[in-house]
Structure to design on (443 residues):
C-alpha cells in the first residue's frame, strides 16, 4: 500500500488521546498498540492497489475524523425507528461504539451470555484473551488495524455448549454525528460453542446530513455442529462513510449463514471472510444493496474452503439508480486438500439509470480436482418483455417498474429465516423503491 500522510498526524494525535483513557489488561493494550503500529505502516489504500481499484478512497482519506465526545445522549424514542424487530432475546445499543445500558434490554437468554466489553473483561477474561482480535487480520488490513487500535467497547456474545436462543439477539450501533466529522469503532465478538444455535442481527444507523465514519469489525467463531444465522443491516445516514469487516471461522459440520442489506451511507465497503476449517461445514452468504444519487457501495467477499466436503452458496444482488456505483468482488478459494467441495456463486446487478454502474468481479481459485464450483454474473436493466406483460394488464408504467424492482430485491429478502425481520425489511424496501426508482429516505 501507498501511505497517505495528510491525515496520519491527525490519527497519531487521536491515538495519543485514546491512550489516555484506554483500559483493560496488558494483553488488550498491547493489541491496541500493535494494531496502530500496523496502521501507520500500512497507510491508506490507493487506486493502484488491486483490491481497491474500483473504490475511490480520496474523500474518506482526506477527511479529518476525530474520536467522538461523551456528551451526546439518546432516548428510547430516538432509537425506535432503528429497532426492526420487536421481540428479541436481548437488545444491546451502542452509541458511537460505546455501550448504552439505559437503552439496552436483556430478556430470556436460555444460557447464552451477552455482555459489553467492560463486563466481559471482569467475568469472561479467558474467553476474551483467547478470541478477541485473534481472527480479523489487523496486521494486514488498514481498516481492521484502525478499528483494533481504537475500539474501547464491544458486544460480546457467548453461546455455551448446546445452548439455543428461540429469539434473535439485536445489536444496534448508532453513530450520532456532531458538528465535526467523527470516527467510531464498533466491535463484535461471537463465540458459538459446539451444538449451539442462535440468530444475530447487527444494525448500523445514523442521522442524515451528519458527516461521520463507522469502521466496524465482527469476529465469529462457529464451533463443530453449531448453527449461526447472521444479519447485517446498514441504515447509515446519506452523508456517512461506512466500512465493515466480518470474519467467520466455521468448524466441522457447523452451519453459518450471513445476510447483508445495505440501504444507507455515502461511501460503503463491506468485506466478509468466511473460512471453512472443518469437514462438512456449510456457509451461505446473501447480499442486497440499493444505491442512488452519488452513493458508492462495495461488497468484497471471500469464502475459503480449507477442509474437505464443505458446501458454500453465495447470492448477491444490487439495484443502482442516479450516479451511484456498485462493486462486487467475490472470491472462492479451494485449498489442495479440500476435495469434494461444492461451491456456487451468483451476482446480479440491476441498473435503473444510464449514469449508474456496477463492476462485477467473480473469482475462483481452485487447487483441488474433485470439486463442483460454479459462478455467474449478470448486469442489466428491467426486462422489456416483463414490463410489456404488466402493461397489457392495465398497470401504469411506473407501477409496473416498481413491481419488477421489488420482486428482484425480495428474492434476497425471502431467503432470510426471521419472519419479523423480513417484514421490516420489506417495509424499508417500499420506502426506498418508489415509482420504479430508488429514492433517498431521510430520517
Amino acid at each position: 500500500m501507498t501511505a497517505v500522510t495528510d491525515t496520519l498526524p491527525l490519527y497519531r494525535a487521536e491515538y495519543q488521546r485514546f491512550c489516555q483513557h484506554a483500559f483493560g489488561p496488558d494483553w488488550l493494550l498491547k493489541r491496541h498498540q500493535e494494531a496502530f503500529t500496523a496502521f501507520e505502516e500500512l497507510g491508506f489504500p490507493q487506486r493502484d492497489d488491486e483490491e481497491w481499484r474500483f473504490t475511490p478512497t480520496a474523500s474518506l482519506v482526506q477527511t479529518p475524523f476525530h474520536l467522538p465526545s461523551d456528551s451526546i445522549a439518546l432516548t428510547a424514542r430516538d432509537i425506535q425507528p432503528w429497532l426492526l424487530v420487536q421481540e428479541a432475546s436481548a437488545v444491546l445499543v451502542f452509541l458511537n461504539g460505546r455501550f448504552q445500558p439505559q437503552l439496552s434490554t436483556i430478556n430470556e437468554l436460555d444460557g447464552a451470555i451477552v455482555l459489553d466489553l467492560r463486563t466481559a473483561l471482569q467475568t469472561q477474561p479467558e474467553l476474551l484473551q483467547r478470541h478477541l482480535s485473534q481472527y480479523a487480520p489487523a496486521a494486514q488490513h488498514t481498516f481492521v488495524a484502525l478499528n483494533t487500535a481504537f475500539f474501547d467497547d464491544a458486544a460480546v456474545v457467548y453461546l455455551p455448549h448446546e445452548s439455543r436462543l428461540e429469539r434473535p439477539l439485536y445489536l444496534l450501533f448508532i453513530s450520532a454525528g456532531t458538528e465535526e466529522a467523527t470516527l467510531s469503532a464498533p466491535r463484535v465478538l461471537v463465540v458459538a460453542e459446539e451444538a449451539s444455535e442462535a440468530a444475530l442481527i447487527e444494525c448500523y444507523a445514523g442521522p442524515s446530513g451528519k458527516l461521520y465514519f463507522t469502521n466496524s469489525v465482527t469476529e465469529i467463531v462457529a464451533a463443530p455442529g453449531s448453527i449461526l444465522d447472521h444479519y447485517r443491516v446498514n441504515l447509515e445516514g446519506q452523508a456517512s462513510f461506512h466500512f465493515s469487516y466480518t470474519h467467520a471461522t466455521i468448524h466441522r459440520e457447523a452451519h453459518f449463514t450471513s445476510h447483508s442489506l445495505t440501504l444507507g451511507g455515502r461511501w460503503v465497503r463491506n468485506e466478509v471472510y468466511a473460512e471453512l476449517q472443518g469437514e462438512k461445514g456449510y456457509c451461505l452468504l446473501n447480499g442486497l444493496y440499493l444505491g442512488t444519487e452519488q452513493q458508492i457501495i462495495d461488497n468484497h467477499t471471500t469464502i475459503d474452503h480449507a477442509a474437505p466436503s464443505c458446501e458454500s452458496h453465495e447470492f448477491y444482488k444490487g439495484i443502482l439508480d442516479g450516479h451511484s456505483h456498485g462493486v462486487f468482488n467475490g472470491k472462492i478459494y479451494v485449498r489442495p486438500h479440500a476435495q469434494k467441495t461444492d461451491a456456487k456463486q451468483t451476482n446480479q446487478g440491476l441498473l435503473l439509470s444510464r449514469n449508474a454502474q456496477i463492476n462485477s468481479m467473480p473469482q475462483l481459485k481452485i487447487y483441488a480436482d474433485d470439486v463442483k464450483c460454479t459462478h455467474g454474473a449478470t448486469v442489466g436493466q428491467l426486462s422489456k418483455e416483463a414490463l410489456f406483460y404488466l402493461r397489457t394488464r392495465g398497470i401504469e408504467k411506473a407501477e409496473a417498474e416498481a413491481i419488477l424492482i421489488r420482486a428482484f430485491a425480495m428474492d434476497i429478502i425471502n431467503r432470510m429465516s426471521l419472519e419479523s425481520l423480513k417484514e421490516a425489511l420489506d417495509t424499508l424496501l417500499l420506502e426506498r423503491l418508489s415509482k420504479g426508482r430508488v429514492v433517498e429516505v431521510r430520517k
In short: The chain is about 25% helix and 35% strand. The chain has one domain: 8-382. Residues 8-382 form one domain. The longest helix spans residues 26-42.
